[in-house]
């Protein structure tokens, strides 16, 4: 039997997750983390959250979300998860939960279903072959999962592969190329340093230029509140960033992203920003860093030169509704 969210099954859903989803590398859920990720998330919608029951036992859990203020929010519904208990993970059961999500998105006027990193329900996962080091957000569907294979057969298109990359900062050393690039950039009027409101201007203009609402919110708040952010400046005007520089309680270096305004590309600023970011994290005692990037993104070479290695692959997927 398929039903919409009923909080009385909360403990059963957590138990299901900790058995089935954890096998695909996701972090275990506690009551607190379940509420933070799902129930108390402002994008949580009980009518977009489904339970598959057998003899009043939870054997499946699927959750999606929508929001006009999200990237693609006017046309897309986001699929957060589709989890089935071992022994019940059949294509028919996956399809039952998936169809329920898609029908809900249709009711809300959405034209497609997306599985990608803009989803505001962040699912943490463990980085393979580490002492449970974790990344805070799954950027798609793990390509080694049964769900990935099912979605391909259900008409979902793989739009990109995301490389999840990892570096233990004890192994980080500033690449030799940094000083050469920095000297060249300096001669062209550029500086790479931590943001200083007494020296640098133009953060709002820079963030508007990227057109990324998440960066606008997070980087804008960080620079306004004194949270360290590595920036690139041209004659004192901020034209690129990497950060913020936040050491999480689990030892991970959290950062929202990295960007350089298009009119200032071609000067090696992206690599300078990233190397300086790694150094800033190392100086704060941060244990490790993790990130994800498109498998065909040229920036992957910057990360690899800094010592990062690809540890897991995720697929960004979409199905457009007829």
UniProtKB/TrEMBL annotation:
| Alphabetically ordered keywords of this record | Acyltransferase, Transferase
Stretch forming the signal peptide: none
The record's Pfam families line, in alphabetical order, gives: Acetyltransf_1
Q: Which domain of life is it from?
A: Bacteria
Instruction: Tell me where in this chain the N-acetyltransferase domain is found.
Output: 190-322
Kindly provide the name given to this protein in its UniProt entry. GNAT family N-acetyltransferase
Which SUPFAM superfamilies is this protein grouped with?
A: Acyl-CoA N-acyltransferases (Nat)
């Amino acid at each position: 039997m398929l039903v919409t969210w009923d909080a009385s099954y909360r403990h059963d859903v957590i138990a299901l997750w900790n058995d089935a989803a954890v096998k695909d590398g996701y972090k275990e859920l506690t009551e607190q983390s379940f509420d933070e990720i799902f129930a108390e998330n402002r994008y949580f919608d009980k009518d977009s959250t489904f339970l598959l029951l057998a003899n009043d036992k939870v054997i499946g859990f699927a959750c999606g979300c929508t929001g006009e203020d999200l990237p693609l929010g006017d046309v897309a519904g986001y699929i957060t998860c589709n989890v089935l208990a071992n022994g019940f993970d059949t294509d028919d059961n996956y399809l039952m939960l998936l169809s329920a999500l898609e029908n809900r998105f249709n009711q809300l006027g959405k034209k497609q279903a997306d599985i990608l990193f803009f989803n505001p329900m962040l699912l943490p996962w463990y980085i393979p072959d580490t002492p449970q080091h974790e990344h805070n957000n799954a950027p798609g569907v793990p390509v080694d999962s049964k769900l990935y294979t099912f979605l391909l057969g259900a008409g979902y298109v793989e739009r990109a592969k995301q490389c999840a990359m990892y570096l233990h900062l004890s192994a980080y050393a500033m690449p030799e190329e940094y000083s050469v690039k920095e000297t060249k950039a300096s001669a062209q009027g550029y500086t790479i340093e931590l943001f200083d409101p007494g020296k640098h201007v133009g953060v709002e203009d820079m963030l508007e230029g990227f057109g990324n609402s998440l960066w606008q919110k997070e980087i804008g708040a960080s620079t306004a509140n004194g949270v360290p952010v590595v920036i690139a400046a041209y004659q004192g005007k901020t034209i690129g960033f990497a950060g913020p520089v936040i050491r999480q309680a689990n030892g991970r270096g959290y950062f929202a992203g990295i960007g350089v305004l298009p009119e200032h590309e071609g000067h090696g600023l992206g690599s300078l920003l990233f190397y300086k970011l790694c150094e800033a994290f190392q100086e704060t005692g941060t244990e490790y860093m993790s990130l994800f990037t498109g498998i065909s993104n040229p920036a992957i070479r910057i990360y690899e030169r800094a010592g990062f290695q690809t540890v897991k692959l995720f697929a960004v997927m979409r199905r457009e509704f007829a």
